Amino acid sequence: EQVANGGAPVSAGFSAPKASFILALVDDFVSGKISAEMVANASDREAAKLLMGLKGIGDWCAGGVLMHFLNRADIMLYGDITIRNYLNDLYDINHQDSSETLLESAADFGDTAVNRNLIDAVAKKYNWQPYRSVVSYLMYHLQEENLVLL
């Protein structure tokens, strides 16, 4: 009852909007609009579409679910600041970082489409497909050590 009235997510430290997203997600699963099986059995593209059809889920979150929780091997989180900055450092991809970009969802940047094309060009040149998730994991770890990805 507390969850149904919105009390549990808010009392757990979530803001009211996040609590409403959580409750909408619960409703979507309970109503059968989506299920773990539907997402798990769908192609990467279809699973992302299913997830992004839910309130509060965008492309970064959908990609993260596919990569981190469903262990999909060929996911590139184009809007992820860490990946974009690391690729920029390595391959001089045209990404200008600012305090504004650090505060907003990377999917909302005006340069996301341009960077997607540049990232895809690098991925194609270095034959990352169909293992772009693995490359992404390497970027997260190598960035901390300031190592070069060849």
TrEMBL record:
GO terms for cellular component: protein-DNA complex. It comes from the Eukaryota. GO terms for biological process: base-excision repair, AP site formation; DNA alkylation repair. Keywords: DNA damage, DNA repair. Gene3D superfamilies: Hypothetical protein, domain 2. InterPro entries: Alkylbase_DNA_Glycosylase/TA, DNA_glycosylase. GO terms for molecular function: alkylated DNA binding; DNA-3-methyladenine glycosylase activity; DNA-7-methylguanine glycosylase activity. SUPFAM superfamilies: DNA-glycosylase. PANTHER family: DNA-3-METHYLADENINE GLYCOSYLASE. This is Uncharacterized protein.
